[in-house]
Amino acid sequence: xxxxxxxxxxxxxxxxxxxxxxxxxxxxxxxxxxxxxxxxxxxxxxxxxxxxxxxxxxxxxxxxxxxxxxxxxxxxxxxxxxxxxxxxxxxxxxxxxxxxxxxxxxxxxxxxxxxxxxxxxxxxxxxxxxxxxxxxxxxxxxxxxxxxxxxxxxxxxxxxxxxxxxxxxxxxxxxxxxxxxxxxxxxxxxxxxxxxxxxxxxxxxxxxxxxxxxxxxxxxxxxxxxxxxxxxxxxxxxxxxxx
Length: 243
What we know:
Layout: H1 3-17, H2 23-30, H3 34-46, E1 50-52, E2 59-61, H4 64-73, H5 79-93, E3 96-103, E4 106-113, E5 128-130, H6 135-141, H7 146-155, H8 169-182, E6 185-188, E7 195-204, E8 207-216, H9 217-220, H10 224-240
Antiparallel strand pairs: 1-2, 3-4, 3-8, 4-5, 6-7, 7-8
């Protein structure tokens, strides 16, 4: 395990536990030897990222990481420009809004605004998803020239994520080609069973992102065209706005 993985594992252990942890609990949760955890914890305490509580000498993160993240996010090259449009999309659809970007053979979620419904699609920023099984992935693949796209799909290991995942290069190629014609891309339980999603590619800051609306099948199935129209309107507004 690399040093960066170890340090991140410490914070992920606190995220999962949702409470202060002793050094031994922290080491177990992070999958590290106590001696290794002790060294990492000492450095993090010296840098102001962890502190000792008064109870059993438990450890817990300070707000330093939160404040640092807030300052970094405030200067995100994409999300500052997109945020008003994302809020409007959530209001118009009442479903979860996702912004993603291609990262090699995966999609990384840059932002997730969960819908207000009690039953909704939930995900986290930073989540990595396969290209072939997500609506954003299809939208990203649509920007690849046809001959190159076919080559990439034939060379890809398109493992099934659900029973509905398209795992045939020909089937996915045809799906993307047909979707490119209409301007939006759909997954029907291909990434998460009983979750439908609609996505469009959006040009932002000389780059391409995907914006998707995702929700449970029983609400999304009859709303695909309406949601696609809302997304396409948002795409036009974003791309026409001054950087």
